[in-house]
2-keto-myo-inositol isomerase
Amino acid sequence: MRQVSPRFALDHMAAPRLDVSALFALARDQGLTDVQIRYPHFSNPVARGIPAADVRFAATEAGITIISVNALQRFNDWTPTRQAEASNLADYATACGAETLVLVPANRSSWPTNSERQDNLRFALNEIKPILQSRGLIGLIEPLGFRTCSLRSKKEAAEAVAAVDGQSVFRLVHDTFHHTLAGETCLFCELTGLVHISSVNDPTFWIYPDRFLAGSDNGSQIQALLDGGYAGPFSFELVEEVHSLDDLAGALAASIDFIRRGLLSSE
Protein backbone atom coordinates (compact mmCIF):
# COMPACT_ATOMS: atom_id res chain seq x y z
CA MET A 1 0.00 0.00 0.00
CA ARG A 2 1.41 3.40 -1.00
CA GLN A 3 2.46 5.73 1.80
CA VAL A 4 0.38 8.88 1.32
CA SER A 5 2.12 11.18 3.82
CA PRO A 6 5.83 11.55 4.61
CA ARG A 7 7.19 9.94 7.76
CA PHE A 8 9.55 12.67 8.91
CA ALA A 9 12.79 12.13 10.83
CA LEU A 10 15.50 14.33 12.31
CA ASP A 11 19.21 14.29 11.52
CA HIS A 12 21.63 15.22 14.31
CA MET A 13 23.12 17.82 11.94
CA ALA A 14 20.04 19.94 12.66
CA ALA A 15 21.15 20.53 16.24
CA PRO A 16 24.73 19.29 16.56
CA ARG A 17 25.39 20.88 19.94
CA LEU A 18 22.53 19.07 21.65
CA ASP A 19 23.33 15.91 23.54
CA VAL A 20 21.40 12.85 22.45
CA SER A 21 18.75 13.15 25.16
CA ALA A 22 18.00 16.76 24.15
CA LEU A 23 18.02 15.78 20.47
CA PHE A 24 15.55 12.99 21.12
CA ALA A 25 13.37 15.39 23.10
CA LEU A 26 13.41 17.88 20.22
CA ALA A 27 12.29 15.15 17.85
CA ARG A 28 9.49 13.98 20.13
CA ASP A 29 8.27 17.55 20.60
CA GLN A 30 7.69 17.61 16.84
CA GLY A 31 5.90 14.27 16.91
CA LEU A 32 8.88 12.49 15.32
CA THR A 33 10.12 9.08 16.41
CA ASP A 34 13.02 8.51 13.97
CA VAL A 35 16.46 10.10 14.44
CA GLN A 36 19.85 9.90 12.76
CA ILE A 37 22.98 10.29 14.86
CA ARG A 38 26.22 11.50 13.31
CA TYR A 39 29.95 10.83 13.39
CA PRO A 40 31.85 13.04 13.85
CA HIS A 41 29.78 16.15 14.51
CA PHE A 42 30.17 18.39 17.55
CA SER A 43 28.34 16.69 20.40
CA ASN A 44 27.81 13.53 18.38
CA PRO A 45 27.86 10.50 20.68
CA VAL A 46 30.37 8.51 18.65
CA ALA A 47 32.83 11.41 18.41
CA ARG A 48 32.62 12.05 22.15
CA GLY A 49 32.88 8.40 23.03
CA ILE A 50 29.44 8.21 24.69
CA PRO A 51 28.80 4.52 25.36
CA ALA A 52 26.42 2.99 22.87
CA ALA A 53 24.42 1.49 25.75
CA ASP A 54 23.73 5.01 27.07
CA VAL A 55 22.54 6.16 23.66
CA ARG A 56 20.31 3.11 23.34
CA PHE A 57 18.85 3.68 26.80
CA ALA A 58 18.14 7.36 26.06
CA ALA A 59 16.44 6.42 22.78
CA THR A 60 14.32 3.76 24.46
CA GLU A 61 13.30 6.17 27.23
CA ALA A 62 12.25 8.78 24.67
CA GLY A 63 10.47 6.33 22.38
CA ILE A 64 12.96 7.04 19.58
CA THR A 65 14.21 4.73 16.84
CA ILE A 66 17.79 5.38 15.74
CA ILE A 67 17.45 4.84 12.04
CA SER A 68 21.13 5.34 11.19
CA VAL A 69 24.64 6.16 12.26
CA ASN A 70 26.15 8.61 9.80
CA ALA A 71 28.74 7.90 8.48
CA LEU A 72 31.61 5.80 7.22
CA GLN A 73 33.49 8.41 5.19
CA ARG A 74 35.42 7.61 1.98
CA PHE A 75 34.00 4.09 2.09
CA ASN A 76 35.00 3.38 -1.51
CA ASP A 77 38.65 4.20 -0.80
CA TRP A 78 39.17 0.86 0.91
CA THR A 79 42.24 0.47 3.13
CA PRO A 80 43.04 -1.40 6.36
CA THR A 81 42.20 1.82 8.19
CA ARG A 82 38.82 2.00 6.45
CA GLN A 83 38.14 -1.63 7.32
CA ALA A 84 38.81 -0.92 11.01
CA GLU A 85 36.59 2.18 10.87
CA ALA A 86 33.80 0.19 9.23
CA SER A 87 33.95 -2.52 11.88
CA ASN A 88 34.05 -0.04 14.75
CA LEU A 89 31.15 2.02 13.41
CA ALA A 90 29.12 -1.10 12.66
CA ASP A 91 29.72 -2.34 16.20
CA TYR A 92 28.61 1.02 17.59
CA ALA A 93 25.54 1.13 15.37
CA THR A 94 24.50 -2.35 16.47
CA ALA A 95 25.10 -1.65 20.15
CA CYS A 96 23.06 1.57 20.15
CA GLY A 97 20.20 -0.10 18.29
CA ALA A 98 20.62 1.64 14.95
CA GLU A 99 19.15 0.01 11.88
CA THR A 100 21.60 1.25 9.24
CA LEU A 101 25.06 2.68 8.61
CA VAL A 102 25.44 5.49 6.06
CA LEU A 103 28.27 5.09 3.55
CA VAL A 104 29.70 8.31 2.08
CA PRO A 105 32.10 8.15 -0.90
CA ALA A 106 35.32 10.08 -1.34
CA ASN A 107 34.29 13.51 -2.56
CA ARG A 108 37.39 13.97 -4.67
CA SER A 109 38.30 11.14 -6.94
CA SER A 110 42.02 10.35 -7.03
CA TRP A 111 41.69 7.37 -9.34
CA PRO A 112 43.12 7.94 -12.82
CA THR A 113 40.55 5.94 -14.79
CA ASN A 114 36.84 5.35 -14.63
CA SER A 115 37.33 1.59 -14.62
CA GLU A 116 39.62 1.82 -11.59
CA ARG A 117 37.03 3.96 -9.81
CA GLN A 118 34.31 1.42 -10.61
CA ASP A 119 36.50 -1.48 -9.52
CA ASN A 120 37.29 0.23 -6.22
CA LEU A 121 33.61 0.84 -5.56
CA ARG A 122 32.70 -2.79 -6.14
CA PHE A 123 35.66 -4.03 -4.13
CA ALA A 124 34.67 -1.83 -1.18
CA LEU A 125 31.05 -3.01 -1.29
CA ASN A 126 32.18 -6.63 -1.31
CA GLU A 127 34.37 -5.96 1.72
CA ILE A 128 31.65 -4.10 3.61
CA LYS A 129 28.96 -6.71 2.92
CA PRO A 130 30.06 -9.29 5.52
CA ILE A 131 30.68 -6.57 8.12
CA LEU A 132 27.06 -5.45 7.78
CA GLN A 133 25.55 -8.89 7.34
CA SER A 134 27.15 -10.27 10.48
CA ARG A 135 25.56 -7.47 12.50
CA GLY A 136 22.18 -7.37 10.78
CA LEU A 137 22.73 -3.86 9.43
CA ILE A 138 21.82 -2.21 6.13
CA GLY A 139 24.39 -0.02 4.39
CA LEU A 140 22.98 3.24 3.01
CA ILE A 141 25.05 4.49 0.06
CA GLU A 142 24.90 8.27 -0.40
CA PRO A 143 26.06 9.55 -3.82
CA LEU A 144 26.96 13.23 -3.46
CA GLY A 145 26.16 14.68 -6.87
CA PHE A 146 29.26 16.86 -7.15
CA ARG A 147 31.32 16.61 -10.34
CA THR A 148 34.42 15.91 -8.27
CA CYS A 149 32.79 13.11 -6.31
CA SER A 150 33.99 9.55 -6.87
CA LEU A 151 30.37 8.37 -6.72
CA ARG A 152 28.13 11.05 -8.16
CA SER A 153 24.89 9.30 -9.11
CA LYS A 154 22.40 6.85 -7.66
CA LYS A 155 22.34 5.08 -11.02
CA GLU A 156 26.01 4.19 -10.71
CA ALA A 157 25.51 3.10 -7.10
CA ALA A 158 22.54 0.91 -8.05
CA GLU A 159 24.57 -0.76 -10.80
CA ALA A 160 27.38 -1.48 -8.34
CA VAL A 161 24.96 -2.94 -5.78
CA ALA A 162 23.59 -5.26 -8.45
CA ALA A 163 27.11 -6.22 -9.55
CA VAL A 164 28.02 -7.43 -6.06
CA ASP A 165 24.62 -9.08 -5.47
CA GLY A 166 24.07 -6.66 -2.62
CA GLN A 167 20.36 -5.89 -2.86
CA SER A 168 19.68 -7.47 0.54
CA VAL A 169 22.46 -5.49 2.25
CA PHE A 170 22.59 -2.08 0.58
CA ARG A 171 20.11 0.71 -0.05
CA LEU A 172 20.48 4.22 -1.46
CA VAL A 173 20.18 7.61 0.21
CA HIS A 174 18.15 10.04 -1.87
CA ASP A 175 19.31 13.52 -0.89
CA THR A 176 17.12 16.19 -2.48
CA PHE A 177 20.05 18.54 -3.08
CA HIS A 178 22.47 15.91 -4.33
CA HIS A 179 19.79 14.48 -6.62
CA THR A 180 19.30 17.87 -8.24
CA LEU A 181 23.03 18.56 -8.36
CA ALA A 182 23.70 15.27 -10.17
CA GLY A 183 21.00 16.05 -12.74
CA GLU A 184 19.34 12.71 -12.12
CA THR A 185 15.78 11.97 -13.15
CA CYS A 186 15.43 8.35 -12.03
CA LEU A 187 14.44 7.97 -8.37
CA PHE A 188 15.18 4.26 -7.64
CA CYS A 189 12.32 4.18 -5.14
CA GLU A 190 12.52 0.42 -4.67
CA LEU A 191 16.19 0.64 -3.70
CA THR A 192 15.95 3.78 -1.56
CA GLY A 193 16.35 3.31 2.19
CA LEU A 194 16.45 6.92 3.37
CA VAL A 195 15.60 10.37 2.04
CA HIS A 196 17.47 13.47 3.17
CA ILE A 197 15.47 16.67 2.97
CA SER A 198 18.19 19.22 2.29
CA SER A 199 18.03 22.78 3.53
CA VAL A 200 20.52 24.08 1.00
CA ASN A 201 19.17 27.38 -0.31
CA ASP A 202 21.01 28.11 -3.53
CA PRO A 203 18.94 29.67 -6.33
CA THR A 204 21.15 27.86 -8.83
CA PHE A 205 19.61 24.59 -7.72
CA TRP A 206 16.25 25.40 -6.13
CA ILE A 207 13.15 26.64 -7.90
CA TYR A 208 11.28 28.35 -5.06
CA PRO A 209 13.22 30.61 -2.66
CA ASP A 210 10.59 30.84 0.07
CA ARG A 211 11.25 27.63 1.96
CA PHE A 212 11.73 27.26 5.70
CA LEU A 213 14.26 24.57 6.56
CA ALA A 214 13.32 22.52 3.56
CA GLY A 215 14.95 23.17 0.21
CA SER A 216 12.71 24.50 -2.50
CA ASP A 217 12.43 21.52 -4.84
CA ASN A 218 11.83 19.15 -1.94
CA GLY A 219 8.06 19.02 -2.37
CA SER A 220 8.07 17.66 -5.90
CA GLN A 221 10.75 15.09 -5.10
CA ILE A 222 8.93 13.95 -1.95
CA GLN A 223 5.69 13.54 -3.87
CA ALA A 224 7.41 11.61 -6.66
CA LEU A 225 9.09 9.29 -4.13
CA LEU A 226 5.78 8.61 -2.39
CA ASP A 227 4.07 8.02 -5.73
CA GLY A 228 6.87 5.63 -6.65
CA GLY A 229 6.24 3.48 -3.59
CA TYR A 230 8.94 4.72 -1.21
CA ALA A 231 7.72 4.13 2.36
CA GLY A 232 10.77 5.01 4.48
CA PRO A 233 11.71 8.08 6.52
CA PHE A 234 12.24 11.60 5.20
CA SER A 235 14.98 13.04 7.40
CA PHE A 236 15.67 16.75 7.80
CA GLU A 237 19.40 17.15 7.08
CA LEU A 238 20.02 20.78 7.90
CA VAL A 239 23.15 22.73 7.05
CA GLU A 240 25.12 25.33 8.97
CA GLU A 241 22.80 28.24 8.15
CA VAL A 242 20.08 26.90 10.47
CA HIS A 243 22.29 26.32 13.51
CA SER A 244 21.99 29.95 14.61
CA LEU A 245 18.20 30.04 14.51
CA ASP A 246 16.64 31.29 17.75
CA ASP A 247 13.69 28.94 17.41
CA LEU A 248 14.81 25.77 15.65
CA ALA A 249 11.81 23.85 16.97
CA GLY A 250 9.43 26.44 15.55
CA ALA A 251 11.21 26.50 12.20
CA LEU A 252 11.18 22.70 12.04
CA ALA A 253 7.46 22.61 12.81
CA ALA A 254 6.87 25.25 10.12
CA SER A 255 8.87 23.20 7.62
CA ILE A 256 6.86 20.06 8.32
CA ASP A 257 3.64 22.02 7.90
CA PHE A 258 4.97 23.71 4.75
CA ILE A 259 5.72 20.37 3.10
CA ARG A 260 2.46 18.76 4.16
CA ARG A 261 0.41 21.69 2.90
CA GLY A 262 2.34 21.65 -0.37
CA LEU A 263 1.61 17.96 -0.87
CA LEU A 264 -2.06 18.48 -0.11
CA SER A 265 -2.33 21.36 -2.56
CA SER A 266 -0.82 19.25 -5.34
CA GLU A 267 -3.44 16.52 -5.02
User: Anything to note?
Assistant: The two ends are 18 Å apart (CA to CA). The first helix runs from residue 20 to 29. The chain has one domain: 8-265.
